[in-house]
Write a structure and sequence with these properties.
The protein is α/β, with parallel strands linked by helices. It folds into two domains: 147 residues, Rossmann fold; 68 residues, Hypothetical Protein Ta0175, Chain: A, domain 2.
Length: 226
């Protein structure tokens, strides 16, 4: 985690983790590194590492909806539910047609509750979550707070669950970087793999340490992403 700590120092603390996981799980996963964070698709927000986690006040998924999801899971092999408190993530190892059928059945189960609940599809997961919970909401809150306000945000994402985060960053005139093949057409810049992400993060660190302008930094990122 040394690179993340060095980045945080060079950026004046303006670095954040944005995830569908809880902030508590991010702290465990990245320990001893700790930063601002958006967790559970925007339900949790921490604007700085020493600040408390704020949670969106949402009710848990209705019992009949959870029961419908349980029935769906029992019909599909290689799938299980992760209870996130506010919603449910259905993890699976289904391919092609099987994944499409699972996604369709979960959407049908959620449709009677579509005014408050939505379905989001990711890599080997289908998540049922409150419609108001989005990574974009969390990013908007971060970008309105110190030390992020007034900065040029740069976001890395590798899955379709990151696309609403990209929308927030673009609204704030930032730069989005699509990692890997799943969202190739979505980012301002595109790189092949997480390994290339590390190289770009090192570029950001080095440019900031050298005191270069945002324009110079973006030129370096574009060159490195080719």
């Amino acid at each position: 985690m040394q690179l993340l700590n060095e980045l945080s120092d060079s950026l004046g603390g303006a670095i954040a983790l944005v995830s569908g996981r809880s902030i508590e799980s991010l702290d465990r996963l990245f320990a001893p590194f700790r930063s601002a964070a958006v967790g559970l698709h925007g339900i949790e927000i921490r604007t700085a590492p020493d600040q408390p986690v704020r949670r969106l006040d949402v009710a848990p998924a209705p019992a009949p909806l959870r029961a419908s999801i349980d029935r769906i899971i029992r019909r599909f092999g290689s799938s299980f539910a992760e209870d996130k408190g506010f919603g449910v993530a259905v993890h699976h190892r289904l391919l092609n047609d099987g994944a499409e059928v699972l996604h369709r059945e979960v959407r049908q189960a959620v449709s009677p509750y579509a005014d408050r609940w939505t379905v989001m599809r990711g890599r080997q997961v289908v998540e049922v979550k409150p419609a108001e919970a989005t990574k974009a909401r969390g990013c908007d809150a971060l970008l309105a707070s110190v030390p992020f306000a007034g900065t040029h945000p740069v976001a890395f994402g590798d899955d379709i669950t990151d696309l609403d985060m990209f929308e927030s960053v673009k609204r704030h005139h930032g730069t989005t970087i699509a990692v890997g093949p799943r969202i190739t057409g979505a980012g301002d810049l595109r790189i092949a793999s997480p390994r290339h992400s590390l190289a770009l993060l090192q570029t950001i660190r080095d440019e900031r340490r050298a005191g270069h302008s945002t324009a110079t930094l973006l030129q370096s990122l574009r060159a490195a992403a080719r």
